């Protein structure tokens, strides 16, 4: 007889993305993106982090909190395939899953043990929305977790390449210097779904307290407005 064991939320991540649009499609794509993992009071014992400093990367196991109550479907329409081709949910990383659990590999930059909110993990390369609940953290082990000869299925076949990003100097000055490289890298990955390709359409994404508005024509993304929120 099986027993349901509840998953406990041990932490929340704090990132520069208050909404889903614009978040990298996978972890590790944008190394310049910084985030922090802040733990719930019951899990702030420094003993729980003993030895973690010896690892360069960690796995974050987290909750698709924005879609957890919307159920699941056996097939999904991956945006990278144009939004029309159906694939099995288990062949995708869609958030609409039987159990709304996500998995991300991030770089562990440092551990701050003595912050006002207890131990804090400073990480890079996360693909999580701000305040996403974290279920667990595990060390990344390169000798078993890395498979250089693995096949990537349709996810690699549909990769559309990097965009050239153009931002007028006056708009670039409105972006904090310590956020510019990460934003440029995010935009270069093309935040749009693959089925949206209208050159006259203005897209908008929220990032680090800003609203970034842009257009895409061919392989060039042009930022046309930066609004401080």
Automatic annotation (TrEMBL):
TsaA-like domain ranges (all copies): 7-149
Alphabetical keyword list: Methyltransferase, S-adenosyl-L-methionine, Transferase
InterPro entries: TrmO-like_N, TrmO_C, YaeB-like, YaeB-like_sf, YaeB_N_sf
PROSITE patterns the UniProt entry points to: TSAA_2
GO BP terms, alphabetized: methylation
Transmembrane segments: none
CDD domains according to UniProt: UPF0066
Gene Ontology molecular function, alphabetical: methyltransferase activity
Top-rank taxon: Bacteria
Pfam families xrefs: TrmO_C, TrmO_N
PANTHER family: TRNA (ADENINE(37)-N6)-METHYLTRANSFERASE
Record family assignment: Belongs to the tRNA methyltransferase O family.
Protein name from the UniProt record: tRNA (N6-threonylcarbamoyladenosine(37)-N6)-methyltransferase TrmO
Organism: Anaerotruncus colihominis
Lineage: Bacteria, Bacillati, Bacillota, Clostridia, Eubacteriales
């Amino acid at each position: 007889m099986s027993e349901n064991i509840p998953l406990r939320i041990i932490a929340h991540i704090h990132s520069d993305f208050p909404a889903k649009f614009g978040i990298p499609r996978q972890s590790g794509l944008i190394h310049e993106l910084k985030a922090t993992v802040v733990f719930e009071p019951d899990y702030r014992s420094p003993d729980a982090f003993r030895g973690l400093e010896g690892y360069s990367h960690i796995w974050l196991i987290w909750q698709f909190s924005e879609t957890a109550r919307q159920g699941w479907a056996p097939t999904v329409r991956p945006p990278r395939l144009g939004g029309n081709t159906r694939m099995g949910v288990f062949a995708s990383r869609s958030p609409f899953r039987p159990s709304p659990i996500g998995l991300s590999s991030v770089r562990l930059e440092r551990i701050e043990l003595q912050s006002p909110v207890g131990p804090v993990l400073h990480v890079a390369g996360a693909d999580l929305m701000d305040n996403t609940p974290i279920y667990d953290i595990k060390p990344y082990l390169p000798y078993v977790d890395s498979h250089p000869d693995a096949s990537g299925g349709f996810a690699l076949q549909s990769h559309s390449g990097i965009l050239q990003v153009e931002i007028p100097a006056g708009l670039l000055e409105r972006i904090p210097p310590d956020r510019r490289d990460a934003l440029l890298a995010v935009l270069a990955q093309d935040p749009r779904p693959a089925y949206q390709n209208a050159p006259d359409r203005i897209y908008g994404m929220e990032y680090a307290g800003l609203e970034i508005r842009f257009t895409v024509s061919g392989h060039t993304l042009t930022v046309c407005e930066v609004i401080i929120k």
